[in-house]
Amino acid sequence: MNAILNFVARIGAAVLDAVAFVGELGLFALAGLSHIFRPPFYPRLVGRSLMEIGFFSLPVVALTALFTGMVLALQSYTGFSRFNAESAIASVVILSVTRELGPVLAGLMVSGRAGAAMAAELGTMRVTDQIDALSTLSTNPMKYLVAPRLLAGVIAVPLLVAVADILGVMGGFLVATVKLGFSPGTYLTSSFANLRSEDVVSGLIKAAVFGFVIALMGCFHGYRSKGGAQGVGAATTSAVVSASILILALDYVLTQVLFIK
Amino acid sequence: MSTPKIRIRGLKKHFGPKKVLDGVDLDVMPGTGLVVIGGSGSGKSVLIKSILGLVQPDAGVIEIDGEDVLTASPRRAAAVRAQIGMLFQNGALFDSMSVWENVAFGLLAEKKIARRQARGKAVEVLAQVGLADSVADLSPAELSGGMQKRVGLARAIASGPAIIFFDEPTTGLDPIMGAVIDELIVDCVKRLGSTSIAITHDMASARRIGDQAAMLFEGKICWTGPADSLMNSGNELVDQFTHGRADGPIKMALRR
User: A135 and chain B: CB distance < 8 Å anywhere?
Assistant: First the structure.
């Protein structure tokens, strides 16, 4: 009997922990968001975070997008040639990249690079009392550390995705024209013939949401880390894992909302 | 009798099943230095963090200049707490900034000076803690432990706080550097006319920087008295602690 009660109690405790975690995360996100709109503002810190999240992630996002576009063209060609549908490659590449692969892959890459760095930086600040020190120097840590990163995430990731879209399409174009023998003019014409503005805009909306999620997870896990080096390591891992899972889950939700009328 | 600068009554805080503070009563009179001693994990840091608003106590009263910061509005409590400076145990310097930016941080945050005057003001404060102009542009990671403590002290006193807290100011320093830091602390506190609370394990330091002393034991203040009577207080808890005796009423949680 005791074993059953213990088992039930353990499930109950896990559920309560999960609810408390979601509540804590929600309150953290709301507090961070509200500080974006209330003075004092820290434009220099937003600029620094934009460089960290956006500019320094550019090489890894660009390479990912380029190779993804190239592989997509190659795979589509080998698959579609079975049905004599090679002419659809250009549309498949541009629609896949702008609607789906650009934002998701850029999000995952930025999460691994910038989200992890955010969690490690804030986590180290937490365990070395630097966050407490901010409070004692008349500075709200949520406003000073979290709000600029959230804002920068929402701005930087869509910009990265715009670049990723262009490079992904360019990768497909290169493979199609150099390796698969497509005429450049025909490829570009059929690429843009089926592209609508909402394809690009929906990808950028996804990117803004992913940027927010990456910054939120990096800040949240870093901010509440404890226990020295091990705690900071765990916070970094949690930030990347949770942001990646949320990106994939939210991608489904956003696709449903944006495309299924 | 004048109002205490800091008055604490019935302060309680627990973490899980552990009662860290279990009804702390404490008065610190204006312009005096109080040293709080007690074993590791006795709640000294939690006491200071509660006053600073970094830890939310479960119950009790914390009055600063007669105003209860636990029941005041967040804005009012922040304004009252803005007069407190803090020297953290490990310095807690911002490693993404240079030394002078660390020192001027509070002044810039409170908009007491313009950014272009900040470096000059920071160098002035650094001179008060015996650091040369050449240190100003270094990063905290380039400094020794003693220098980091001095920069931390400079940052704590830069805005001329009416109250200053010191969390184990001499921990990790050699005895000579410890004495130097103590001397600087006494100088700074005297010059500013501040009220101070220091928590420490270092008895020599406690007698140098404190006027009054209090000991925390099992979540309560078990003794208060003049700091220079710490070594002969007549209280067996204090005597065991200050003389570092393994045997006595304080039992360490050790498995033998």
Answer: yes
Taking only the tens of pLDDT, chain A with its 261 residues reads 788 999 999 999 999 999 999 999 999 999 999 999 998 899 999 999 999 999 999 999 999 999 999 999 999 998 888 888 888 899 999 999 999 999 999 999 999 999 999 999 999 999 999 999 999 998 999 999 999 999 999 999 999 999 999 999 999 999 999 999 999 999 999 999 989 999 999 999 999 999 999 999 999 999 999 888 999 999 999 999 999 999 999 999 999 998 876
Q: What is the ipTM of this complex?
A: 0.90
Chain B contact residues (CB < 8 Å to A) = 49, 52-54, 78, 81-82, 84-86, 88-90, 92-96, 105-106, 109-110, 155
Q: Of B124, B144, B160, at which residue does a domain stop?
A: B160
Domain coverage including residue B140: 92-160
Distance CA A71, CA B217 (A): 68
Last residue of a domain, one of B116, B145, B160: B160
Q: Structural domain boundaries of chain A? A: 42-259
Q: Please tell me the distance in Å from B85's CA to the nearest CA on chain A.
A: 7
Q: What CATH number does the domain containing B166 carry?
A: 3.40.50.300
Return the H-helix or E-strand segment holding B103: helix B99-109
Prediction pTM value: 0.90
DSSP per-residue string spanning B143-194: S-HHHHHHHHHHHHHTT--SEEEEESTTTTS-HHHHHHHHHHHHHHHHHHT-
